[in-house]
Amino acid sequence: MSSTEQRLLEEAGRCINCGFCEAVCPTLPSSGYNSSRGARGRVMLGREMLDSAARGEGISQFADSFFSCLDCYACLQVCPAGVNAGRVSHMARELITGRGEGVPQLARLMERMIMRYHSIVPLGRRASAWAKGLNIPAAGETLLYTGQMYQLMSYSSAMTSFLHGRGKGISRTIVGSVLRLPWLMRLAPLLNDREIEEEMGNSLRNIATMLDREGVKFCYMGESEPYPGTLMHDLGFASSMKEYASFVAGEFRKRGARRVITVDPHTHDLLKNTYPQLVEGFDFEVVHYTELLDPESFSRGSDDVSFHEPCHMTRRFDDFSAPARLLGRVAEVKLPDSSGRKTHCCGGPDELLYPGIAGGVSRARMKQLREAGGRLTVTACPVCLLNLGREGEAMDISDLLVRRMKPGS
Amino acid sequence: MGLHEDLTAIVPDGVLSSREELIPYSRDASHFQGKLPVAVVLPRTTEQVSRVLKYCNDHSIRVVARGGGTSLTGASIAVDNAVVMSLLRMDSVLSISVEDRCAEVEAGVRIDSLNLKLSKLGQLFPPDPGSSIAATVGGIINTNAGGLHCVRYGTTKDWILGLEAVLMDGSVLRLGNRTLKSRIGYDLTSLIVGSEGTLAVVTRAFLKIVSKPEEVGRVLAFFMDIESLGRAVAAIKASGIEPLTAEYMDRMTMDAVESTGTFKFEVRAPYVLLLDVDGPGEAIGRRLAAASAMLSENGATGVVSTRDRDEMERLYTARKGAYSSLLKLRKSERDAVVIGDIVVPPSSLPAVLRRIGELVSADGVRVALFGHIGDGNIHANIFVDFSDSAETGRVERFHTHLAETALEHGGSVSAEHGIGIEKIGLLRMEYSSRHSEKALDIMKSMKSLFDPKGLLNPGKVFD
User: CA B46 to CA B21: how far, in whole Å?
Assistant: First the structure.
């Protein structure tokens, strides 16, 4: 038995099927209450998959259950036995990708793109268009690392539609060609949504502006900045991810970086919690940009907002309160019933492979945010922003903060 | 057409049939391994429920209805060649009337979700099983579940005004009413409550609701012996303080809870009592102080009280998850936990708890004790490796002795978890001890009136 199989057995073996996790798993209602798409079902199927593998049988039939998990860790918050169904799914995905059986074609495509182009979409100059005119140096001790997360959002919707064969003139043959010939994804920039690109670019400029006004000196890698590999890690491509993480860390070193400033919770979580396990000697200081902003630099406005706390912010760290603290400083903040460690996922992680489930989850979350009573929804993650924004008006926290930064700060 | 196609024609996009999709429905929260269902159907409406049941009845196909799948006695596991009907898609709170003190809800609404909605109106649906986060209205009605609030509010049956239920032949019955009073012949509503899915499929319910307690305070009192704890609870109740909850845990349960990181107990003692008192804001402090003083006077070696909401919630969550937490203390993954669920008159508790201690030693079993001590309900959680025949024999013996002890003191073998598969023999024992075996015959006759072919949840409650 491999170490991943052993760890999966240990995690799943502690479960006694009480069903508490299923009650909070966002993908269960969104999948029409199909229990194989819920946390308890995934843990049960994790054990089944190991049994199948031990019997020498195929395991591809289990793939949908595990690949549809959002990794949001809502399950862990309520499990009295401390079982993490999200980790079960992650380890199951690692086994599936390791054996090469049942790996969704889109997942393979993403792995190939990241390994070949260091991004999901070869963005070229578009990746750094937001920084034009800001004169940020290309090397230095402190690196502002966007990880292309904001930049990629403008391709997300159209790319998902395209890869699922939806849209005028998109045939299965065309999609099949892309899946077989990943270099065709170099044409993906044609799928860009200019409005979202503008919006996301503004958020990045706001972040850079605020850091600058706080006196933080930083550099930026520009269009050669690599994607952090988040999706490849989430999809369970463990060996590729290990290799890729070393590459990214090497790029940081080439720029002379000692400290890395992250701008989104996925990258922050990955660099803080996963990279040190993957890259020997990963000794960079990793900080989120909101941790460098002094609340005293901001003044209160009349905004009345519902705050969506991203899962990777509230559930992957014991205390990650800087965004909430800043937001509370500038606006009247209303939290939905599911907040803090009990926050509800935006559905984003399922967008590429299971857009139907992702849509159901984001609709459910937006309903909760509206019921919280804020006039506007604010979040601190580009993935959440994009997914919630499809269901109603949503704003990135940086856009609100920059408006309330005191003159002279 | 085949079964899958026929069911799909009734419930489009609501039928599961691949092995991977069916596996999660083969088990519930009990230690029983059920069979793989032949299909799972997820209806959205009462009409779909009716048509599916009629189809299955016409084709003599067994049906097991399922809510949150939280049964601890195997009541909701799939049986051979059965269709599992999950009611989770029927999850609407249809109306709440504070004036009428009534909520009309579909069967798949989870208890905590319902209470979240009610709390915004200052209201409460009191039944509060440990599994309330996952348990559904339909599930707790069929189980007649109890929980932490029973000492004040009683069990689920006390909170059901009326039901919509579908018989196996597809007939839809609307029983009871949304009114607090309703005398319309035999009380079929009450008959269905606690019937464990063997008589009808509950699709909708009129629930009685009450105003939420204004303020709640929580006391933790630690004891060196269980009899003192039992006497302290009796003293509290005799004093006129009506606790909202009165729960206890033994050392092993506390260790299990602490091992999950949910809660850390400030005092290390063999037993702890968790007592909630409520009242208006201006009185709650005084009531907490009075309860604390009384517990100290009655043998508590340490008393801690709190009104901090976060701390209270963590403690309540810890208690509700006690059963699952115990699984961390299994010696191996083969170990299961059989739950004794006896109830005795609270006045008998000190004697019964002492006797249980003797039985644990005499029968040589590993047992964690916790329960709703305020209403006399004791959960004896017995660790067992079913592959070890000697241990299995010891556990069965202890479980029987436990039931006999309850009966000797005027109690019952099953308080709130129901009969399911696990307690079929104990149910027989209880009626036999009362020389009332005929009651079981009457129940079986009733079952055949509701479900002549015996297709609804067969093998549960009776052989």
Answer: 24
Of the listed ranges A306-310, A376-380, B253-257, the one predicted with least confidence: B253-257
**To the nearest whole number, what is the mean pLDDT of chain B?**
94
Domain ranges of chain A: 3-103, 106-292, 298-403
B46 and B143 assigned to the same domain:
no
* pLDDT at B321 > cutoff 70: yes
Secondary structure letter of residue A203 according to DSSP: H
Residue B295: closest CA among B212, B380, B228: B228
| Number of CB atoms found within 10 A of residue B453's CB | 15
Mark yes or no for CB contact A45/B23 under 8 Å. yes
pLDDT tens digits along B391-442: 999 999 999 999 999 999 999 999 999 999 999 999 999 999 999 999 999 9
- Paired with B372 in beta bridges are B377
CATH number of the domain enclosing B417? 3.30.70.2740
**CB B112 to CB A23 under 8 A?**
yes
Same domain, B30 and B65: yes
Contact A23 B110 (CB under 8 A): yes
* ipTM computed for the complex: 0.94
Q: What is the model's pLDDT at position B323? A: 83
| Position B230 in a domain | yes
Domain spanning A298-403, CATH class: alpha beta
Identify which of A18, A21, A66, A78 has the alpha carbon closest to the alpha carbon of residue A42: A66
CB–CB contact A23 B86 (8 Å) = no
pLDDT tens digit sequence for A306-330: 999 999 999 999 888 999 999 999 9
Fold of A3-103: Fumarate Reductase Iron-sulfur Protein; Chain B, domain 2 (1.10.1060)
- Residue A365: exposure state from Cβ atoms within 10 A (0-12, 13-18, ≥19): buried
CATH number at residue B33: 3.30.43.10
Inform me whether the C-beta atom of residue B327 falls under 8 Å from chain A C-beta atoms.
yes
- What is the average per-residue pLDDT within A124-128? 92
Q: Position B375: which residue type? A: D
CA distance B413 to B401: 10
What is the extent of the structural domain holding B397? 334-445
Residue A280 CB neighbour total at 10 angstroms: 9
Which pLDDT value is given to residue B241?
A: 87
pTM of the model: 0.94
Q: Are B295 and B232 in contact (CB under 8 A)?
A: yes
Residue B450 falls inside a structural domain: no
What residues pair up with A376 in beta bridges, in sequence order? A305
pLDDT above 90 coverage of chain A, percent: 84
* CATH code of the domain covering residue B310: 3.30.70.2190
Q: From chain A, pick out residues whose CB is under 8 angstroms from the CB of B42.
A: 32-34
Closest residue, chain A, to B16 (C-alpha): A34
Mutate to test the interface with A, among B30, B31, B133, B262 (most CBs of A within 10 A): B133
Residue at a domain's end among B324, B347, B365:
B324
pLDDT-derived band at B261, boundaries 50, 70, 90: confident
Assess whether B250 and B292 both reside in one domain. Answer: yes
Number of domains in chain B: 4
- Among residues 72-131 of chain B, which lie with CB inside 8 Å of chain A? 86, 88-89, 91, 110, 112, 116, 131
pLDDT band at B262; cut points 50, 70, 90: confident
- B457 within some domain: no
Extract the tokens encoding B14.
Answer: 């609501």
Look at residues B211, B235, B265 and tell me which one is the last residue of a structural domain: B211
- pLDDT, position B226: 85
User: Between chains, do B321 and A20 touch, taking CB under 8 Å as contact?
Assistant: yes
